[in-house]
């Protein structure tokens, strides 16, 4: 099986099923982050546009396309207008999609507009809150006992490292876990994380084991630090709404009035 070919074929089918044009499709989740297991799902995420006339309505219409997971393939997408609404909120999930290293389809005109908007609307404080909330939740649920679900370390480390990146560089963090690790200079900590990463990617079962003290200490210190650091962040002034509307119109101008577009 060629997963990329399977995914691209399914995206074409989705376009026909819903009478939409997929503008951008990427891998999200562990495969994009770089710590997938051999049996990890393919988390395919996409942004799509309807024909122009679909947007001429009074009452809101469904703005997501979702499918149940079948044979390790998980497909989910957002309508263009929803994506731009989330851009206005500096939604970190959307920003991660736009930075995914695994791209299945990209309309370059659409992508260039979205990249420009992401630079304009990125908010350090809202992004840090998002990642900090994620780290707190996973830490509380999985990593405080004497014996823990070892693989859950990645789901706490990554958001803390993302917070560090935002503080250090004042921009959206990269998707890839190993790029985030470049910020660390503690050799013992890096060795322990690296050993876990190698095991996970090689398919070694990471079950319930004694917690790794050096990683727990890093996590606890990071959580405490960013809880306090958020108060010192200067919220970035949001760009004018007109930029989003201009981008929406430019992208829609390239869509048919009616009928299905296809890649």
Structure explained in plain terms:
This protein is α+β, with helices and mostly antiparallel strands. The protein has 2 domains: 3-122 and 237-252, 2-Layer Sandwich (Beta Polymerase, domain 2), CATH 3.30.460; 124-232. Helix content is 51%, strand content 14%. It is built from 11 helices and 7 strands. The strands form 2 sheets. It has a 5-stranded mixed β-sheet, sandwiched between helices. Strands 6-7 form a two-stranded antiparallel ribbon. A hairpin with a 6-residue loop joins strand 3 (64-66) and strand 4.
In terms of topology, how is this protein built?
Elements: H1 3-18, E1 21-28, H2 30-33, E2 42-49, E3 64-66, E4 73-79, H3 80-88, H4 92-98, E5 103-106, H5 108-121, H6 124-142, E6 147-149, H7 154-169, H8 177-181, H9 187-202, E7 208-210, H10 213-229, H11 241-252
Helix pairs in contact: 5-11, 6-7, 6-10, 7-10
